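About this split. The held-out portion is used to measure sequence recovery: a designer receives only the structure tokens and must propose an amino acid at every position. Recovery is the fraction of positions where the proposal matches the reference. Here is one held-out target exactly as it appears in the evaluation file.
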């Protein structure tokens, strides 16, 4: 894992100082540790198959995706 994050026990982690790629890696590591400790969060075989199907469909036609910015805007508009 990241050298910066390794020293967390010695000091407070200021995640905002990390590059985006390292913050993403940190979030992935945290999520993986939670998933390991919480079996209810594990995906079923059907869920894994569905995710794989969707990923394959996206790779076959990348233009079928919706940019995150658009999805986010639509989500927040529905709250107004």
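Reference sequence for scoring:
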């Amino acid at each position: 894992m990241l050298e910066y994050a390794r020293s967390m026990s010695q000091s407070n982690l200021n995640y905002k100082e990390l590059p985006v790629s390292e913050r993403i890696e940190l979030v992935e590591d945290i999520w993986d540790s939670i998933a390991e400790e919480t079996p209810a969060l594990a995906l079923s075989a059907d869920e894994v198959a569905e995710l794989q199907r969707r990923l394959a469909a996206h790779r076959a036609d990348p233009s079928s995706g919706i940019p995150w910015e658009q999805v986010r805007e639509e989500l927040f508009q529905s709250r107004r």
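Annotator remark: DSSP finds four helices and no strands in the chain.
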